[in-house]
Write a structure and sequence with these properties.
Length: 349
Amino acid sequence: MRPGAIETLGALLDVLCPMHLIVDAMGRITHAGPTATKVLDTKALTGRDFFDLFEVRRPRLDPGVPGLRAAAGRRLHFVLRGPADTELKGVAVPFPEDRALGPPGGVIVDLSFGIGVIEAVGRHDLRSADFAVTDLAVEMLYLAEAKSVVTDAWQKLNQRLQGAKAVAEQEAYTDTLTGLLNRRALEPMMRRLIASGQEFALMHLDLDYFKSVNDTLGHAAGDHVLRHVAQILRQEIRDGDTVIRVGGDEFVLMIAERTSDAELSRLGGRLIRRLEAPVAFNGEVARISGSIGTTRSSTYAKPRLAVMMDDADLALYAAKQAGRGCHVAFRPGLRNAVEMRSVGAVPPV
């Protein structure tokens, strides 16, 4: 073998097939391409036994290098020994016996990842420079990178769209003055509570004497009072409850679980007491109260928003008739009582 022949051949093969190994007749590695060195993750490949590092899975071969030489040109299936058991494809090319080019009885083994190249790139931190420029794996890497860029861009765009959709929906369901939910949210919230299977109450609150605030102190004072009312309602409800502004001075409270008459009566009384506290505005004092009508989902075989709102309105009207500033719970027979009051008769409520 001419001096420097292995080095010269190795330098050529490093460019043409950077994942090659030169193996002598004893099975020792005498040269390794740069990518093979990177994949094997060791600095001292020279002198290592090829068969300590690789297992030939297919086809069945005679032991050692003679088996590789006999399988010259055939597609070989290797497994890189180690925790990952990386599968590789390869081909063996024997050296001629004239000793002019390489170690007599030795072989060149050229390796590739086959269809597992994408996974291997991530596992071994490979780059396009680790492959021969003519290797189709480079094209696969470009395609994979392009797909990754497109997928990443699509995911980011989708996230922005989802975020914009969520913001738009939130704005569509939000009352700009008070920050509470608006009337559009009433039906979805009702559906959510019904779907949960839990009992709940619907409280319809109408502010008393609010018109006089606008008439005497102006609409700015009225807006201030509405924001003050919204703050009170937020403070009085719990997690799972919902407050919705359904009109100018009307609010609906969806009260989850706390549905006994006594509990709702206590909540209604507390709300009214807090609403009746004077509200300061620009050196003036605004005074309001509140009337509340309540109905419970357990009253109905199948709760429906339209029916519950109608019954809560009826109870609210009864509260107005009773002198305002009070809470009335819907009960069967309330409709007749309200109608009789409306024509002058005053039965017990």
